[in-house]
Write a structure and sequence with these properties.
Blueprint: E1 2-3, H1 6-16, E2 22-26, H2 33-42, E3 47-52, E4 67-70, H3 79-89, E5 94-99, E6 102-105, H4 114-123, E7 128-138, E8 153-156, E9 161-167, E10 173-182, H5 185-188, E11 201-207, E12 238-242, H6 244-251, H7 253-256, E13 267-269, H8 274-279
Parallel strand pairs: 1-4, 2-3, 2-5, 3-4, 7-12
Antiparallel strand pairs: 5-11, 6-12, 7-8, 7-11, 8-13, 9-10
Amino acid sequence: MQHRDLTAFLKAAPETLAKGPVALVFMEDEIEVDSTLRHHLDCGFGSVVSFMPETFALAADVQPKVHRVTHDLTRDASYIDVVNKVIEALPGPWLYFCFNAEYLFYPFCETRTVGEMLSFHHEERRDAMLSYVIDVYAGDLHANPHAVSLEDAHLDKSGYYALARNDPDNHNHPKERQLNFFGGLRWRYEEHIPEDRRKIDRISIFRAKPGLVMRDDHTFNDEEYNTYACPWHHNITASVISFRAAKALKRNPGSTFDIESFKWHNSTPFEWHSRQLLDLGLMEPGQWF
């Protein structure tokens, strides 16, 4: 379904997106647009919404399966504003957001749908899920100068860490069950990354409700949404496999000439399977088996 702009989409959203969970995919460029949408359709999202400029093309097999909203992130409202407007227009369902060349992985995603996972998560009285944005990159930048290759994707198998998230409103004491996570390309090339964009944690899956607001750092005004687990045990976490940082580092004139290869001694080929991410500790199943 085609929506001429964000206003038209929001007006139709309560009716057209009645079936959840809903994936909101923001297209920053034309790299891997179709594969991103196919991946999230295969995850079992009830509705997949693509925000993209009118000039971007969609494959014939993808076009009829998604809601296409004409929206240019370089000119129109930011993705933060869009997510908040969708929350306001569509309180109740689970929402997920990502960008093109990003792919959601969760425990056992090869055999279980995202809806099954969220049903279990909700039964544990959780309304949000922590995800880690795991940077992936092409192994050969000469063959793939934009740093994206699904067939030759690599990730860092180590180098991830967490720091306490201090609360400025409580004498900078650490917030309960909240941490800032770092690693991947944002850590290895931090001199090229603005300080406020170095974290890899993102609350990318959450249940919309009246009054909920997503902030610029991908946290919410409801602090419980920002926690990695409930008070009594660990919960499911997910990974968002992302070429976004690699693309930006190779596109940026200030960094591209400093990087001949993203590979280092802790690089390993990405197998496109949740088991690898579980084995590396880049997500966990909690009590879901």
